[in-house]
Structures are given as structure tokens and as C-alpha cells.
Design goal:
about 425 residues; alpha+beta; 3 domains; six-stranded mixed beta sheet; three-stranded antiparallel beta sheet; about 45% helix; about 15% strand; elongated
């Protein structure tokens, strides 16, 4: 029930917020324009002309403020503003505002990010400006020399996991030119993002099943070729303490590039083919032998999945029984032989009974989920068509967010402004 003669609470709060923003703008302008700041290199160099107290409109957490600083023109169309550099002004924004813009643009599409910033903070920042900020700072975040992981004794029984996978994102036609794809005319509409993750395991539950260590997962993502991705993933693993691990496990699906990456970059790792991918191929094998969607193929698939998962020589049992059931000719024989070849080539990565007895993960669910959360939620939305550089910039910021290092980047982004005289 409204009280007569009063303002509704939400409008009262919003009005107070706007008043505080106005006061904040005035206070920030006074502070940043204090004549007593001593900024390094704030003096003319040979050939430069100084424009003293030149006004510059800068976006901040309180809105637009006027920053008056010395600007030095070099006479060749360029120039510098030492105060801007000291403050970390980027794309006409303070670092505090740039941080919000990058986070918002990495979480939502740019127009939604602009709407969210306005709703949450009262700031009016166009989506295009957020996009420019992401593209300006994304490369810096990718090249940021992150601090090394803290050196500490490796807990007894620690296992270090590495996983890799890929998923396509929609891109502009010029970024698929000359690339083979899955369209009827063999053209491509997507580019593959390769995603890698590392995490550790030190404990098992009461049933002996492995438990991923909390807050131990970190990601890397790139649209670069597999060889570059492999080097990036190895660098992440080393950064996270690969050399201190008791055991290294590489989990992946059956893609040839994944295992080549593991061979080159993690030669000492135990290789495990994701059980659920293996089970999918078991289903294809059973259908090739006994027909699609038949009771016999379903029953055989379930039996083989149990044998593969629980028997020490499960893959040999499956292969032996499958060869005995091979049709003599026809398409079903060809389909079954294709699946048999898959199991033959991956036999040494399918010792699931042994892996489980050692308390290891046999599924690559972490990277599968990462493909959805790190990539899909932002880069695979309806109507999106990415340019490769823009997509990579968003990926780099999203990885920092997922890795819990976004705040650390901003802490180290610029040194504090020198103390006033």
C-alpha cells in the first residue's frame, strides 16, 4: 500500500544513485586534475610541442569526466599524454570502467552487455564501445605473463589431468574461404575452437571414485592449428605444476589430432580414451553387426559396454566376439569393420578396469562441459557470425574469468599513480 505524498522506493533509490554518481564525477575530476600530481616523463622531448591542460573526456565508473592534461604533439600527426599513460586510460576509459566493460562483453553479446551495465550501474556505454574495448585489451590478456603457480609439496597421490577437445563456432564467410566443411557443397560455415583444460585430483570418495580438486581447473582456448594449441596447452600445464605431479593423465576422444597432440606434448602421460565416446562406437558396432535399432543390437551394446568397462581384457573380448559375428558381405560388414578398426587402433587407451582400479577418471566430462560453458554460451548463440580475431579476444577474456585470474590481471594492469607532492 503506497503512502500518500511519497516517492516509490525504487525511484527514490535510483535518484539517490544518480546523485551519488554526479558527486562522484565531480570528486574524481577534482582528484585527477590536481596540479600537484608528479607524472614521469611529463615534459617535452626534442621536437615536441606541449599543449598544456588540454581537455579530454574520459569514461569512468561515475560517468564521463573531463581530464585536463598536458599533451605533447610530435609534429608528425602523433602525440602522447603522460598522465593518460600513468592512469592507464584505454579507449577513452579509466581502467575501472574498462574492467567492467571487458567482463560484460565476455559474458554477454555486446548489446546485452551494454544493457546490463546500464541496469546494474547506471552507466550508458554503447555495445560498440564495449566491443572495441574487448578487442583492444583481449590481446594484452592473452600475452599477460601470469604469475607462476605457488611451489608447494605435491600431496600424496596427486594426479594431474590434461584434456583437449574442439567445437565449431559460426564465423564470417571470409574466414572460411578455402576451408573444407560439412555443407553439401563441402564448404564451411564454422571454424573450430580448440579448448584445453588441466586439473588435479588428490582424493577419492568412499566408493573409490576420483574427486576433482575444487578450484583446480583452468582453461586455454584458441582458433589456431593443433600444433600451436598443443604448445599452448603444454605451457598451461607447466604453469600449473605439471613437473611436480605424481602421475599425468591425458583424456580425450578418438580424434587423431588429439592423440598426436598428446604424443608430442605429454609423452609420459597415461592416455585414456573417454569411455562415453568408446560406448558410442560400441553402439555403432552393434548396429553394424545386428541392424539399427534392433533388440539384438541394443542388448549386445549394453553387454559389451559392461564388459569393456569392467573386464581387464574387455576390449579383446569385444573384438573377438565382433569378428565372430561379422557378416560375410554387404554394407553392414563394412560399417562393422570400420568400428572394429577404431577399437583396434585405440586398444591401449581403453583399459578401463585398470584405470578405475587405480582411482582415475575415465570420462572427459570436464572438457565436454567446458566446450559449453567457455565457448558455447557466448560464441555459439543464434545469429552470431564471428571474425577470428574478435572471437579469440572474447575467448581469452573468458578463460581468464574461468581461471579466476581476471581480477589479478587488473591488479597488475597499471602501477598506481605516484603520490601527490
Amino acid at each position: 500500500m503506497a503512502v500518500e505524498g511519497t516517492v516509490p522506493p525504487q525511484w527514490l533509490e535510483l535518484g539517490i544513485r544518480e546523485a551519488l554518481l554526479r558527486d562522484g564525477r565531480r570528486a574524481l575530476e577534482d582528484l585527477l586534475n590536481d596540479a600537484h600530481w608528479r607524472v614521469e616523463a611529463d615534459q617535452a622531448r626534442p621536437g615536441e610541442k606541449c599543449y598544456a591542460a588540454r581537455p579530454n573526456q574520459v569514461g569512468s565508473l561515475f560517468g564521463e569526466v573531463i581530464l585536463r592534461r598536458n599533451y605533447y604533439a610530435d609534429g608528425q600527426g602523433g602525440g602522447r599524454a603522460p598522465l593518460d599513460e600513468a592512469l592507464g586510460i584505454v579507449e577513452g576509459c579509466t581502467p575501472a570502467l574498462a574492467r567492467l566493460m571487458c567482463r560484460a562483453g565476455a559474458v554477454e553479446h555486446y548489446e546485452a552487455a551494454a544493457a546490463s551495465l546500464n541496469e546494474y550501474s547506471g552507466l550508458s556505454v554503447p555495445g560498440r564501445r564495449i566491443q572495441r574495448m574487448v578487442n583492444r585489451l583481449g590481446p594484452q590478456m592473452a600475452q599477460w605473463p601470469r604469475p607462476a603457480a605457488e611451489v608447494s609439496p605435491v600431496p600424496a597421490g596427486q594426479v594431474f589431468y590434461v584434456e583437449g577437445d574442439g567445437t565449431g563456432i559460426p564465423v564470417r564467410p571470409e574466414d572460411t574461404e578455402g576451408r573444407q566443411g560439412k555443407q553439401p557443397d563441402q564448404s564451411a560455415k564454422t571454424r573450430e575452437v580448440k579448448l584445453g583444460c588441466v586439473f588435479t585430483q588428490t582424493q577419492q570418495d568412499e566408493e573409490g571414485k576420483p574427486l576433482r580438486d575444487p578450484q583446480s581447473t583452468s582453461y586455454v582456448a584458441t582458433l589456431a592449428p593443433a600444433a600451436e594449441f598443443g604448445a599452448l596447452l603444454r605451457a598451461e600445464a607447466i604453469q600449473r605444476g605439471l613437473a611436480r605431479a605424481k602421475l599425468v593423465v591425458f583424456l580425450g576422444d578418438g580424434a587423431a589430432w588429439v592423440w598426436e597432440l598428446a604424443r608430442v606434448n605429454f609423452p609420459m602421460a597415461v592416455l585414456i580414451l573417454d569411455f562415453f565416446h568408446a560406448a558410442e562406437h560400441l553402439e555403432g558396432l552393434a548396429q553394424g553387426l545386428f541392424g539399427e535399432n534392433t533388440d539384438r543390437s541394443k542388448t549386445q551394446w549394453e553387454q559389451w559396454a559392461k564388459v569393456l568397462k569392467e573386464q581387464p581384457d574387455g576390449v579383446e573380448i569385444v573384438l573377438r566376439q565382433a569378428r565372430q559375428a561379422l557378416p560375410r558381405r554387404g554394407q553392414r560388414r563394412a560399417a562393422a569393420l570400420k568400428q572394429i578398426e577404431y577399437f583396434e587402433s585405440n586398444t591401449n587407451k581403453m583399459r578401463y578396469a585398470e584405470y578405475q582400479a587405480r582411482g582415475l577418471f575415465i570420462g572427459s566430462g570436464v572438457i565436454e562441459a567446458g566446450c559449453k560453458t567457455v565457448i558455447g554460451l557466448r560464441l555459439k548463440q543464434s545469429g552470431m557470425f564471428w571474425g577470428v580475431p574478435g572471437a579469440q579476444n572474447v575467448l581469452d577474456i573468458r578463460c581468464l574469468l574461468e581461471n579466476r585470474q581476471f581480477g589479478l590481471f587488473w591488479e597488475q594492469y597499471r602501477k598506481p599513480l605516484p603520490t601527490a607532492a
